[in-house]
Amino acid sequence: MSDTIDKQPNTKQPDAAPAARPARGGALLGDEVFTRHGEGPPPRNLAEHAYFSVWDLHAYYGESYIVQGVSFQVREGEILALLGRNGAGKTSTLRAIARVDEPAVRHGEIWLDHKPLHAMKAHGAAQSGVGLVPEDRRIIQGLTVEENLQLAQIAPPVGWSIERIYDLFPRLGERRKQEGTTLSGGEQQMLAIGRALARDVKLLLLDEPYEGLAPVIVQEIERTLEEIKRLGMTTIIVEQNAIAALHLADRAIILDMGEIVFDGTAKEVLDNTELRQEYLAI
Ligand SMILES: Nc1ncnc2c1ncn2[C@@H]1O[C@H](COP(=O)(O)OP(=O)(O)O)[C@@H](O)[C@H]1O
Ligand SMILES: [Mg+2]
């Protein structure tokens, strides 16, 4: 396919995609679509047939080689937990999927609902249904809760109505006239998720939604994510609170130093003490 990203940078890049390490426990990318025979990336021609798939993704910050040949897929309606230690490359992978400028994707393909995101910039990816809820939430200063949500709906395709978002997060409805940046951390997280849903999202990317929040607020957000799950939203969740993410997720992948070291069910990770201790320190 001619729209594969394979820019030749001025500087060094891997001549060939490095072979993925063998899986530890679970089946690495082992399902009916990406069946692996030996090592190396899965066949790219199958990547576009999954609902969401990343194929042999390599991404860089300047010359720093961070995402090192990542491949995985997500089925429609599935929740995937993307786990790994601090600095493993989780945020970078989400940012690459959302097609923000950094890290720069130099090789690989990203497909959502048969559309090639790798050929797009952030604006196109968002219009095609990628909803990134970044770690720092990015609530817009000087705007009320409601204005933050309205701003998300300024360009089509529009997703949930604002009233529906208030039904999911009643606290946001109560504070609709309050300036967004004056909300508590948990409420800002709700607003960030609400803002993603205000667009027509096909793939929700949550980067550490529980970070820095009190346990009672984490539970409240967990309940809304359960609700979003029931509605069939395809989601990738990155979380340091791996246990909470694994309880929500159907499947999990573990990143280590920019490579996938495990791909399997959430239950397999919960049941595998050795794997959790080695890569998640839990
Ligand atoms: N803007 C950046 N410029 C250079 N290196 C970065 C940048 N952001 C992250 N990194 C590096 O990329 C690696 C992966 O970071 P990140 O994707 O944020 O990891 P995680 O989200 O798993 O904690 C780390 O070594 C980090 O230092
Ligand atoms: Mg991160």
TrEMBL record:
One Pfam family of this protein, by short name?
A: ABC_tran
Q: What domain of life does the native source organism fall in?
A: Bacteria
- Composition bias of kind Low complexity appears in 14-23
* InterPro entries given in the database record: AAA+_ATPase, ABC_transporter-like_ATP-bd, ABC_transporter-like_CS, BCAA_Transport_ATP-bd_LivF, P-loop_NTPase
Species the sequence originates in: Salinarimonas ramus
| GO molecular-function term, one example from the UniProt record | branched-chain amino acid transmembrane transporter activity
Residue numbers spanned by region Disordered: 1-23
Does Nucleotide-binding appear among the keywords? yes
By what name is this protein known?
ABC transporter ATP-binding protein
